[in-house]
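Changelog-linked ticket: 6-O-phosphono-beta-D-glucopyranose example.
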Amino acid sequence: MFKVSRRHFAKLAGLSALALATLARSRGGAARPGPYAPASFPKDFLWGTATSAYQIEGAASEDGRGPSIWDTFAHAEGNIGDRSNGDVACDHYHRYKDDVGLIRELGAKAYRFSIAWPRVFPDGTGTPNPKGLDFYDRLVDELLRSGIEPYATLYHWDLPQALQDRGGGWLSSETSRAFGDYAGHVATRLSDRVKSFFTVNECGRFVPFGYGLGIDAPGLKLPDAQVNQARHHVALAHGLAVQAIRAHGRVGTRVGVAENISTCLPAIDTPANIEAAAVATRELNAGFLNVILTGQYTEGFLNYAGANAPKFTPDELKIISSPNDFLGLNIYAPGYYIVASDRPPGFSVLPIPSSFPHMSSDWLRIAPETMYWAPRLAAEIWNVDTIYITENGTSGIDKLHPDGQVYDLDRIMFLRNYLTQLQRAITDGVPVRGYFLWSLMDNFEWIFGYEKRFGLYRVDFETQARTPKLSASFYRDVIARNAIGA
Ligand code: BG6
């Protein structure tokens, strides 16, 4: 007797559904209503891509650029997986015009790049390099000519080495002050054309990884008290930069932070777990986002840190919490799955099973609902009315197929699911105004060197050829239709 397996049956059922749909279309059926309608984004939603200076620019010692802690770290033996560095990277410093063309081809309306502090102040402070901002002048002009809005990040991890040598980098509040001066200088020069600045990128990564675990530059393994102090100095730097941009920028210049928020997701979406996830979001971001947005270190944070708590003054808290215009969130893997608890602090963090799926980067667990909960809870607890997703994307193996194409279906799967959750959040009223996909092109992925590829464009690092991956077509289509789904 002919037996139909369940899988075979499902396939047949799928085929007949397809046949019916085709039939409906061939009879001139109008766009399908209801749940099948594409999920649209708001009319003025800002679609963009993102990169950072050290990861793409190269030209490491050109036009007076000083060394950064990432030059030193990458050149030291054993720090980078493939023993590479950012000396040349994507050679974007010389190829920026073509690269702006790549953004244009996507139809993206915005581009988030970072400015290299050691190009502007090679020594960290003092006299600015006369050629320091010329490259960014040219880049910004090219973007504007192409109808692409520039979003500049002032610090994406490339601290001038001189500041590390002099005062221990972020261990010193002198670095915070130097950052404020640098921010003011950049705002004076660029705010006639750059209307939106992000101060620092991912304090939540570069402080613990660089100062506590020793796996990012400057490669230090310091005790908790110093790590907490370094984080406090970054928060202070952010506040000083906000004030400097207000003082030196043209009227209407906007500023905020770009942070890899510690994401807290309700393990099961019950009201009690959602409330617990909100409490957890505040507490697990107490050392940076919460103090920036409220001007207070939480009691929970100070009690937990005990003698290791950062030293601070009330005046510093005022500077740190200078009002921002928006909040930038980098969203990748889920941080913590939360359930409500009767015991203080009111939530428990569940262990993540080892079988949880991830992308080609081991750390990049796949949880599209992170894109829903992180902005929703952030907007609720900190009363934020403008959020940008400043990074989201994935690595992939991204081999060139013999026909010369890159069929990165895994990246498309990832993006489709995360964007679907973003659309759900916006439909629920979460104020996300824009999305910057990480990354425009493959680049120097820090400790992984060139082995991890996050780009919409594949880069051949021998020839510097850029090839659009299939995901570039996917993203172009999303942008053109301002919608996800069909
Ligand atoms: C973010 C950074 O943490 O994630 C980017 O802001 C980085 O600069 C991206 O490239 C991917 O991280 P990683 O560690 O896999 O290179």
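Closing comment: Example verified and attached. Residues 1-33 have pLDDT under 50 and may be disordered. Residues 52, 55, 201-202, 205, 260, 330, 361, 391, 438, 445-446, 448, 452, 454 surround 6-O-phosphono-beta-D-glucopyranose (CB under 6 Å).
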